[in-house]
Design brief:
The protein starts with a helix and ends in a 21-residue tail after the last strand. The chain has a 5-stranded antiparallel beta sheet with strand order 3-2-5-6-9. The protein has a 4-stranded mixed beta sheet with strand order 4-1-7-8. The chain contains 3 helices and 9 strands; from the N terminus they run H-E-E-E-E-H-E-E-E-E-H-E. With 162 residues, the chain is mostly beta strands. It has helices spanning 2-13, 60-65, 125-128, and strands at 26-32, 36-40, 47-49, 52-58, 68-76, 89-99, 107-111, 118-120, 132-141. Helix content is 14%, strand content 37%. Residues 1-17 form the signal peptide.
Length: 162
């Protein structure tokens, strides 16, 4: 009777660790707000009006090569800034998304048509450690609305999200 008790005790205390492979790819969910539009940098015919989420996926090969997913983000006059019934663009930002390593869960970013211009969710390890991000290093003013104003600062690598 002692042997079955010892055997059960041994089995209960010797759990097997099953190795889980590290993630090999990365995924971004990029929120594009209303009154803006997204233009795919590798396919200029892929224009998406705002109030959507754009999903970008990076394969292990793309991550290893440091591939950036380029896009343009355009903001438009609306509500109290609109001076006519025509849709007038304000900013045309040249942006990219990059994953410097694979990570669990989607990295979530949301662009905004006003300061702070971009926010980040912290559910993905890539956002927390700065290995995933969105940057818009260049842009141009397309309207009197932004003439003389500083270019929007859109760069998640400049902020820590912990």
């Amino acid at each position: 009777m002692l042997f079955p008790i010892l055997s059960a005790s041994f089995l209960a205390s010797s759990a097997l660790a099953i190795p889980v492979p590290p993630p090999s790819d990365s995924k971004f969910n990029l929120g594009i707000p209303l009154h803006t539009s997204y233009i795919n940098g590798s396919n200029s015919a892929d224009i998406r009006p705002g109030d959507i989420t754009v999903i970008m996926e990076f394969t292990a090969s793309e991550i290893g090569q440091g591939i950036k997913k380029d896009f343009h983000w355009i903001t438009y006059e609306h509500d109290d800034t609109a001076k006519s019934d025509e849709i007038t663009p304000i900013w045309n930002m040249t942006c990219f998304a990059i994953a410097k390593k694979a990570f669990e869960g989607p990295a979530e970013f949301t662009l905004q048509d006003h300061s702070p211009w971009i926010t980040a969710g912290v559910n993905a390890s890539g956002v927390q450690d700065g290995s995933a991000g969105i940057s818009c290093p260049t842009g141009s003013c397309l309207s009197d609305e932004c003439k003389g104003k500083e270019l929007p600062l859109i760069d998640t690598f400049l902020h820590y999200y912990i």
